[in-house]
Specification:
Distance between the termini: 44 Å
Radius of gyration: 22 Å
CATH topology of the largest domain: Zincin-like
Structural class: mainly alpha
Mean pLDDT: 78
Largest sheet: 3 strands, mixed
Helix content: 55-70%
CATH class of the largest domain: Alpha Beta
Number of helices: 22
Length: about 475
């Protein structure tokens, strides 16, 4: 699990509300991907929380890959984005992004319940049900979500000292200061919902997976119509489920020859670990103790208790974390958790070997590169700065819109006397956070000391010359 010190400040979208429209246009024009780490971003006075966790993201990609393949969705077309919200909610604002609340995984006992949600949302994408979004984008709330969450590149490297909820870690657990699951961002017509249901059933059949989990999820939403909307799940409100629609879904699901086929044991084991992890990061340690009592000796329960111990005791949780590593020495996320405990307790040099081990096990994981680079910079050892620079640049190649990667790279470069390059890195980081004006200032300063026509000079020039399109006018 990636690590972040609790003292690291939140990187927020800095543009004023009057520029939100331009920030959204920046997303659509440049097709930015999400940053490497989690975030809290401000949009019209409210905060929209994102969260990045390598372990969770890998699991969701594995869930989605076969579904996307049979749905005809090109590999890499859809980015699955985690939202730091414990409500059960998911939505697709366009054909390139699928937002899934951590609450979906926390509330799902089996992989099939999450896979069913992904399959349903994939049905909307493959069915081109999102064309109407271009009209809805004019709505300020949706504009704020798409523009600020994506275009502003909201980035956080950790959480403030003593904060609860999701903080730090491979999850880069950012605090949730509001719930984007409180209202429907997309309101589909019932016919489109039914079409997405049928498509999801077809995808599950083609991939040899049971629709039992999907049925369990949507059964709950059908029941939501019997209670006040005040107590309804957001997903139920944005995906209205009439009883007759549920009956049709159930009939189709039970016809499948795979209906009673359980998830592979290895996949269920991964799901249980991620679910325990998210519950631990999102809950008070007392809640974790009740959910995963000491009498529960399962690996997920041990994982949850180790995370809770880390959040309350920091470096003092190494005993629990080391016990996990002894059981699964090649689990990169256990080494990541160890590095986090050390880094957040103010021991960055001691954290380096843990992050190095995690990276050795997952050499293509950009988040591991960036957190290793952060630990190297934090060690305050000049001899380690060239390695920090190399590792951070490798992380940026894999996650090119990580604000924390650019900020740490700027520090590493500046301490080596490479001030022009440091200014350029700062400018690039500001661009990922949506601060175009600030980025221009640093880029212009960098240009003065860069060789004219060099790749770095041209990158700075692109930032200086950039003008956000006037979207929607």
């Amino acid at each position: 699990m990636t690590a972040t010190p609790a003292s690291l400040p939140l990187a927020r979208a800095r543009r004023a509300a009057s520029l939100l429209r331009q920030a959204a246009a920046l997303v659509l024009a440049t097709a930015l991907v999400l940053p490497t780490l989690g975030s809290r971003a401000e949009a019209q006075g409210r905060k929209i929380p994102l969260v990045r966790d390598a372990e969770t993201e890998e699991l969701l990609r594995d869930y989605a890959k076969p579904i996307f393949q049979v749905a005809g969705i090109a590999q890499g077309q859809v980015e699955i984005i985690l939202v730091n919200d414990t409500d059960f909610n998911a939505f697709v604002p366009d054909a390139r992004r699928m937002f899934i609340n951590i609450g979906v995984i926390m509330g799902a006992e089996t992989p099939g319940e999450v896979i069913g949600v992904i399959a349903h949302e994939a049905g909307h994408i493959a069915g081109r049900h999102l064309v109407r979004l271009r009209e809805a984008v004019a709505n300020a709330q949706i504009m704020a979500v798409i523009g600020t969450v994506l275009g502003a590149g909201a980035v956080v490297a950790g959480a403030s000292q003593g904060a609860g909820g999701l903080d730090g870690g491979g999850a880069a657990m950012a605090l949730s200061a509001g719930s984007i699951g409180q209202r429907s961002l997309l309101a589909y017509q019932r016919g489109e919902e039914a079409a997405a249901d049928k498509a999801a059933l077809r995808y599950l059949e083609l991939t040899g997976q049971s629709a039992r989990g999907m049925l369990k999820t949507f059964e709950r939403f059908a029941d939501q119509q019997l209670v006040s909307a005040r107590y309804a799940d957001p997903y139920a409100m944005s995906h209205p489920m009439a009883r007759e629609r549920y009956a049709a879904l159930e009939e189709g699901a039970r016809k499948s020859r795979f209906f009673d086929t359980p998830a592979p044991p290895a996949l269920q084991a991964r799901h249980d670990l991620v679910r325990a992890k998210l519950i631990a990061f999102a809950s008070h340690p007392n809640v974790v103790a009740r959910e995963f009592p000491a009498s529960d000796t399962s690996l997920p329960a041990q994982y949850a208790r180790a995370i809770a111990a880390m959040q309350s005791r920091g470096k003092g949780a190494l005993k629990e974390i080391d016990a996990l590593i002894r059981q699964q020495p090649n689990n990169p996320y256990f080494h990541e958790l160890r590095g986090q405990a050390l880094l957040e307790s103010g021991s960055p040099r001691e954290a380096i070997p843990s992050f190095q081990r995690a990276l050795a096990l997952r050499p293509n994981e950009g988040q591991f590169h960036i957190w290793l680079g952060y630990a190297l910079v934090g060690s305050n050892d000049k001899a380690l700065l060239p390695e920090a620079e190399r590792v951070l640049k490798a992380g940026i190649q894999r996650d090119p819109n990580s604000g924390i990667a650019y900020s740490q790279l700027a520090i590493a470069l500046g301490r080596q006397g490479k001030q022009a390059e440091a200014d350029l890195a700062t400018a690039q980081g500001l661009m990922t956070s949506g601060d175009v004006e600030g980025a221009r200032r640093y880029a212009a300063r960098a240009q003065k000391n860069l060789k004219r026509g060099s790749p770095a000079w041209l990158q700075a020039d692109d930032i200086v010359a950039y003008k956000p399109p006037q979207f929607g006018r």
